[in-house]
Amino acid sequence: MQKIIDLFYKFLEILLILLLAGMALMVFGNVVLRYGFNSGLNVSDELSRYFFVWLTFIGAVVAFREHAHLGVESLVAMLGRKGRIACMILSNLVIIGCSAIFFWGTWVQLPINTSMAAPVTGLSMGWVYGVGFFTGAGCILISLDRLFRLLTGRVTEEEIAAFTGENLTIEQMAERT
Hints:
By secondary structure, the chain is mainly alpha-helical. It has eight helices and no strands. It is found in: Cell inner membrane.
């Protein structure tokens, strides 16, 4: 099962690369067309914005899985094992709550978004903002898995170290600042 999950996240990373590359190519191509040929593609402006939205929200799930989001590591690092586990439990509960609100908000907004069409492509805005379902559900599932492992005592020392930022090298810590 872990191999399937790892393959899924590898797919997401490839998707992020493709979204970023597509966004960069569309914007670069449009700049060349505008300044070199006094023309441009309206669709590239719109799609690059949508790619950026998808890139951000899909990337949030990948970053959350890898403990790459900002945290108050200096405070948590001062605590002992029990304190760190308590902070991990509290943190995951808050994330589940916020992600559930985000998912619910996407659900409530869906009828409005699907009834609206993008001005250039005609794409339903439900496809653009529907990525909130993926992000909300993804963060909830990751948090539930972490919470389950915490409460059943299956959390590893490596996971605790990742939560407190102790698994990072000096170079990785310098990148974060």
